[in-house]
Design a protein that fits this description.
328 residues, alpha/beta, 7-stranded parallel beta sheet, 3-stranded mixed beta sheet, 43% helix, globular, binds nicotinamide-adenine-dinucleotide
């Protein structure tokens, strides 16, 4: 099959492309604007494959999208492209509105035009998979509460509000026009090639550079963590076996306070390169609108598709720390 991947030079998209090239026979076209978050090196092991093509494009560019879709003739579209960093969304919300909302709308329109012209067999087999986040459900304060796919949307930041908007558009294009969509909402990913503005790579790099490891507020915000390769396995299962029009939550069931994550990283680093990294921890003012806890219930994907993470949290965190030590 032909997989059109948007944002495939980013952290999760590039891991998805490596999976598709190395573990399947599918062909891939990656369309990516190459923002600051893109890392071309993340694809160096597959970029020479005859089954891989790249096109530098903004998903807001209607004309280019239409031409690309028409000539590549995708069977599957997996939509990863987004502005993805909450802190940046607080300082510059406009780029989030443009890419995450207008970009998703533009892509939906161009894909719908293409899909409507397919013959009935290709029309039925086609999928538009939108990759989204647990942050759309907002803050979950009670420790025993977990969000299911039916929980209400209560986004708090410009980032999560823009992703929630995109989710609503994708559902609407299914209900209104019949486009065969699937949505997944996942918790925090980590692993190699993540841009070092996110908690885990930023902590590792600041620690080894002997710079302050800044912690928002008291550091007690709880997040769930999933190794990126486990996320990608879940996405492939959902896009090939999931039910049209459905949403699937994906998570690792690894809930930790941000401060606990930072302390674990300091402990792993101390094993590899002895030093007192914890003395670099510096508490700073909390960021506005900071959610206290996200937590997902993954019974649907487990029950329907039999997915579970293969990696343990500690061993994948250890591998990730090692990767940053060897690559920076
Ligand atoms: P990322 O920031 O690492 O990569 C995003 C990619 O999209 C980059 O390569 C960038 O160049 C590209 N891009 C940005 N704007 C574009 C535009 N207008 N047109 C074309 N390409 C554009 O993001 P990521 O961490 O790989 O996340 C991928 C998707 O998964 C996002 O939609 C994000 O919301 C979602 N998600 C991420 C996480 C996480 O923990 N990283 C968790 C859940 C969901």
């Amino acid at each position: 099959m032909n997989f059109l991947i948007t944002g495939g030079t980013g952290f999760i998209g590039s891991t998805m492309i490596k999976f598709l090239i190395n573990q399947t026979n599918h062909s891939v076209l990656n369309i990516d604007k190459l923002t600051y978050a893109a890392n071309i090196d993340s694809l160096k092991t597959v970029s020479n494959s005859p089954r891989y093509q790249f096109c530098q494009t903004d998903i807001c560019n209607q004309t280019e999208l239409a031409t690309i879709i028409k000539s590549f003739r995708p069977d599957i579209v997996m939509h990863f492209a987004a502005e993805s960093h909450v802190d940046r969304s607080i300082n510059t919300p406009e780029t989030f509105i443009k890419t995450n909302i207008i970009g998703t709308y533009t892509l939906l329109e161009m894909v719908l035009n293409y899909w409507q012209q397919l013959d009935s067999i290709h029309k039925e087999a086609f999928r538009f998979h939108h990759i989204s986040t647990d942050e759309v459900y907002g803050d979950i304060e009670h420790p025993n509460d977990f969000c299911t796919e039916l929980s209400p949307y209560r986004p708090s930041s410009p980032y999560s509000a823009s992703k929630a908007s995109a989710d609503h558009l994708v559902r609407a294009w299914h209900r209104t026009y019949g486009l065969p969509v699937i949505i997944t909402n996942c918790t925090n990913n980590f692993g190699p090639y993540q841009y070092p503005e996110k908690l885990i790579p930023l902590t590792i790099l600041n620690a080894i550079r002997n710079m302050p490891i800044e912690v928002y507020g008291d550091g007690k915000q709880i997040r769930d963590w999933l190794y990126v390769e486990d996320h990608v396995r879940a996405l492939y299962l959902v896009v090939t076996k999931g039910r049209i029009g459905e949403t699937y939550n994906i998570c690792g069931n690894n809930q930790y306070q941000n401060l606990e994550i930072i302390q674990m990283i300091c402990d792993i680093l101390a094993l590899k390169r002895p030093g007192d990294y914890k003395q670099l921890i510096t508490f700073i003012n909390d960021r506005p609108g900071h959610d206290v806890r996200y937590a997902l219930d993954r019974s649907k994907i487990e029950g329907e598709l039999g997915w579970k993470p293969l990696e343990s949290f500690y061993s994948s965190l250890y591998k990730t720390v090692n990767w940053y030590l060897n690559n920076y």
